[in-house]
Predict the structure.
Amino acid sequence: MQDVTNFVGRILLAVIFVLSGFQKLTHYSGAQQYLQQLGLPGMLLPLVILLELGGGIALVLGAYTRIVAVALAGFCLLTAIKVHYQPGDQMQMINFMKNLAMAGGFLILAAYGAGKMSLDHRLKLMWGR
């Protein structure tokens, strides 16, 4: 049961990143403008897309899970602070707390790995096990 719950948990953590990365890829100029409105350089967008879309797919597959989980935990924390920490806006604070919770889930995944239902296990991938 532990392997199944780990697999389902990875999928649930990954969905938001796969969808968000795909949306940024298909609406590139709008996503780039949004980054710039946040005071970030638009040239970061390819890295954001790679992390969200690529990292999300890697999580589903269970490939290099520990390193991807650490990277996504950092991304969630940075996004929480830079984008969502707005104490006067209740919805942004809910998103802030959501990002903190996701970062916690990623850190647990980084600590315990992807389990048997993963490419890490099947291929004995370095940095995954």
Notes: Residues 2-123 form one domain. The mean pLDDT is 95.
